[in-house]
């Protein structure tokens, strides 16, 4: 009888981890998708390299387009940095949520004792 209870408790502990594992799988899939998107963007950039000398000609002949290109580059850099910041903050939030759930479980066990 004691062995069955121990087995039941072990099984319940494993079941509790399933939600965490599902969340982790979801996060990893999202991360993989982001990485694939970055790789695709880099491959496209390699396929169509930016010609700096052509831009210098553009700067001399069409100032408006040249300024737009520079603005686009600046905005792209800012977008990439902000995306990285968001990802770092999401990771921090997940860690805090995980810690919160662990503490909540510990407290629920203490109340029952």
Please outline the helices and strands:
Layout: H1 2-47, H2 52-61, H3 63-112
Task: Describe the protein's architecture and organization.
The protein has three helices and no strands. It has helices spanning 2-47, 52-61, 63-112. The longest helix has 50 residues, at 63-112. The radius of gyration is 26 Å and the shape is elongated. The two termini are 21 Å apart. The mean pLDDT is 84.
> What summary fits the major beta sheet?
none
**Helicity level, as a percent range?**
over 70%
pLDDT < 50 runs, ≥5 residues: none
Class of secondary structure makeup: mainly alpha
Total individual domains? 2
Task: List the main descriptive attributes of the protein structure presented here.
single chain, 113 residues, mainly alpha, 0% strand, elongated
Quick structural summary:
The chain is an all-alpha fold and 113 residues long. The chain has two domains: 49 residues; 63 residues. The chain has three helices and no strands.
